[in-house]
């Protein structure tokens, strides 16, 4: 439902108040979703948010890359590039991780009952269907960690519904443990590459080169501490730039890379996007 104009006018002042308190806000359009990316970044054309940092903001001048657009800079929030978004905004969101917070999003009464029995009491914010439980400390985000429960912190956004009630509790290990689970099975992408040069055996098939290169790529992904999506894209790009034209990569190799990325929280779709973008960048997408 469209909000009245007088309510819309409150979004920017609310965002400025949040920014002044160290909470990075961003506008949401109808449906509680972010505004679309700028033309240069549409459909992930930029190759995976190359300017993004874990705490944001995105380096694009407008409202771009969802949570990564969140900022505490009042000059950005008041800029002409953001004016259209604020005029059409349906709500205000914020980047919890950028404020050093974690939100346990409880989507129904069963989830709330579980939280009251399982988690330390902390500040709570009523939502349309449940509650947000806020903890002091940041961590990786994850959806559906259990029925009706999402964890929103780094690289995520939550709708601003007010300051809530209660005292903030330091992020406990029991909440951190919610995202520790077996990664979903990797979905490798078949690599379309030409046959080895001159019809001979590709020298990269030797364990001393190809396997070492894949192992190093897995390690690079596993050791990523921030901007994981960017690390995955750049790692895929490096592997394909070395091995993508000689026909040495197999589904086993791509499965190893995808498994490493998904163990860091990347979805199968993000892995596929990063792989496809790397192929396109190197001119291998139609080979």
Written overview of the protein:
This protein is α+β, with helices and mostly antiparallel strands and 287 residues long. 35% of the residues lie in helices and 14% in strands. It has helices at 5-8, 11-20, 74-77, 80-88, 109-118, 173-176, 207-222, 228-243, 251-263, 268-281, and strands at 25-29, 33-34, 91-94, 101-106, 123-126, 131-136, 142-146, 149-152, 158-159, 169-170. The strands form 2 sheets. Strands 4, 5, 6, 7, 8 and 10 form a 6-stranded mixed beta sheet that branches. A hairpin with a 3-residue loop joins strand 1 and strand 2 (33-34). The model is unreliable at 1-8 and 191-200 (pLDDT under 50).
Task: List the main descriptive attributes of the protein structure presented here.
287 residues; alpha+beta; 4-stranded antiparallel β-sheet; 10 helices; 10 strands; 35% helix; 14% strand
């Amino acid at each position: 439902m469209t909000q009245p104009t007088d309510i819309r006018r409150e979004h920017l002042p609310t965002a400025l108040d949040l920014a002044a308190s160290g909470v990075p806000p961003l506008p949401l359009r109808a449906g509680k979703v972010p505004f679309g990316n700028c033309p240069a970044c549409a459909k992930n054309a930029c190759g995976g948010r190359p300017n993004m940092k874990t705490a944001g903001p995105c380096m694009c001048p407008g409202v771009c890359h969802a949570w990564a657009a969140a900022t505490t800079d009042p000059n950005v929030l008041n800029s002409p590039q953001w004016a259209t978004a604020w005029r059409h905004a349906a709500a205000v969101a914020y980047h919890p991780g950028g404020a050093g917070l974690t939100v346990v999003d409880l989507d129904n009464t069963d989830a709330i009952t579980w939280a009251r029995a399982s988690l330390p009491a902390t500040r709570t914010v009523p939502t349309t269907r449940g509650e947000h439980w806020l903890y002091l400390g940041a961590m990786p985000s994850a959806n559906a960690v259990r029925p009706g429960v999402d964890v929103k912190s780094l690289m995520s956004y939550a709708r601003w519904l007010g300051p809530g009630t209660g005292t903030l509790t330091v992020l406990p290990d029991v909440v951190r443990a919610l995202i520790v689970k077996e990664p979903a099975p990797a979905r490798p992408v078949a690599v379309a590459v030409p046959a080895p040069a001159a019809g001979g055996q590709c020298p990269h098939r030797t364990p001393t080169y190809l396997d070492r290169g894949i192992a190093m790529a897995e390690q690079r992904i596993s050791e990523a501490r921030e901007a994981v999506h960017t690390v995955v894209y750049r790692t895929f790009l490096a592997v394909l730039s070395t091995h993508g034209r000689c026909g040495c990569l197999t589904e086993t190799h791509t499965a190893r890379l995808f498994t490493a990325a998904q163990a860091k929280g990347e979805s199968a779709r993000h892995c596929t996007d990063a792989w496809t973008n790397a192929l396109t960048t190197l001119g291998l997408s139609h080979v």
